[in-house]
Design a protein that fits this description.
- The protein is 49% helix and 16% strand.
- It is built from 14 helices and eight strands.
- The longest helix has 20 residues.
- The radius of gyration is 21 Å and the shape is globular.
- It starts with 8 loop residues before the first helix and ends in a 7-residue tail after the last helix.
- GO terms for molecular function: acetyl-CoA carboxylase activity; ATP binding; carboxyl- or carbamoyltransferase activity.
Amino acid sequence: MNNILEFEKPINELENKIIELKSFAKENSIDLTYEIDIISKKLEIMRKEVYEKLSPWQKVKLARLQERPKALDYIEKLITDFTEFHGDRFYGDDQSIVAGIGMFQDIPVTVIGHQKGKELEENLKRNFGMPHPEGYRKALRLMRQAEKFKRPIITFIDTPGAYCGLGAEERGQGEAIAINLMNMSRLKTPTISIVIGEGGSGGALALGVADRVYMLEHSIYSVISPEGLSSILWKDSNLAQRAANIMKLTAQDLYDLKVIDGVIKEPIGGAHKDINLTVDNLRQCLLNEVKKLKKLNEVELLDQRYEKLRKIGVWQDS
């Protein structure tokens, strides 16, 4: 059963009302087509109004929704002949990051993504999408392989942040992220990153230093979680909603700030409402960018990436 967010309750009530009317009409052989059409039109208008005016905090809730498609869902629908690789060749395999090779529209690609679980058991297996250092080292291993064989790299970002447990710190979590940032900026092959849910801090950025960065319409991307920011600023994590409203973490905010290159449209209600429509929009975006980037030689690719990174951020002279 789907989780119902607070702002979705009126919508859910109307949806249930339509289901009840259809069931009642069928059981009693009554024609309620007119009444159902009226409520359906009202529901369509309500959905549009609600989802076009979501607050930043509501976007946070939607981005974290357990029903949202995960990296493997997109890989399954976008990448043919996908073969997953495991291990970092130093310590072990981290299942919070999936990485492998496959074909995207007849183009050989390397695909890397944060993977959350869809239920508690899988979330425990995937560590709730929070990678250990071996996850980032696995990702870097696959990136270097992609560079060697001239394969474009596609990354799917969806993490609350890198895991900050004792073992992860002992094995060099900060160093693993830093090495990824440095190496991604230098890769001599096209890189495209898509934020599909949460983009949390350095844990997200370690897969996000790319030639092109896009976000799904209801995803978020920030240096810290709203709960973390409110704990630091106001010593109260319960003020997360207030923090979210000032953080500029939505796809629309970050596009306006020129941190990302574009926003990919989701169906009304979010990506989980119609994954096929989301995938179609994502496919078209990826195909356009892969074709453009593959036309660049190595010098042009690196020069454009450098200029892109240098321009991120907005400042004002005092």
